[in-house]
User: Which sequence fits this backbone?
């Protein structure tokens, strides 16, 4: 039996809205949103962790580079469970690196470090965790993308208008860098 809750973000969610309540979510049954060609599934967010961390997956096909962005107060983890993802990161001194992460590989992006990624193989999946004093950003996916109850990738990519990136609320600790250039390949 699965319990559903109403939250301030959704009429129906399997994630309890209040912190300190244990719960279990079956595979794929978290809060889902489509963004770009990907399916993002949130399993734990700020509401459950008192804004200390979040836990989500991103599944997608081979695609375009996700735009460069920075989290001023949030540390982010990329752990590839299936396929391959190319991670682009710039440290606070301006040194850039690019790495291909495959199944079992781990990438860490400290706060204030511009980064981007690109899914390199169809049917890839990344587990993401973000934590930091600025709170969590998992509700950003629903705000910029499209909440969905569907399993699977979007039938058509959900691509926000360029001006939408500037409207992402500061509470999500995501700042896009539209003019950022990667000097790596």
Assistant:
């Amino acid at each position: 039996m699965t319990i559903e809750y109403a939250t301030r973000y959704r009429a129906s969610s399997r994630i309890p809205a209040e912190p300190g309540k244990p719960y279990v979510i079956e595979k794929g049954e978290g809060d889902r949103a489509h963004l770009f060609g990907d399916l993002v599934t949130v399993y734990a967010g700020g509401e459950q962790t008192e804004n200390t961390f979040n836990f989500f997956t991103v599944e997608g096909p081979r695609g375009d580079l996700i735009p460069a962005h920075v989290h001023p107060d949030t540390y982010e983890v990329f752990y590839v469970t299936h396929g391959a993802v190319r991670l682009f990161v710039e440290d606070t001194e301006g040194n850039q690196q690019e790495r291909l992460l495959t199944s079992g590989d781990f990438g860490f992006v400290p706060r204030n470090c511009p980064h981007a990624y690109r899914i390199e193989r169809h049917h890839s999946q990344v587990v993401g965790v973000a934590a930091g004093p600025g709170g969590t950003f998992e509700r950003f996916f629903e705000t910029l993308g499209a909440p969905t109850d569907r399993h699977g990738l979007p039938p058509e990519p959900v691509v926000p208008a360029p001006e939408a990136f500037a409207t992402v609320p500061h509470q999500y600790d995501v700042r896009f860098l539209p003019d950022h250039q990667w000097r790596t390949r």
User: Anything to note?
Assistant: The helical segments are 46-49, 140-144. The radius of gyration is 16 Å. The mean pLDDT is 90.
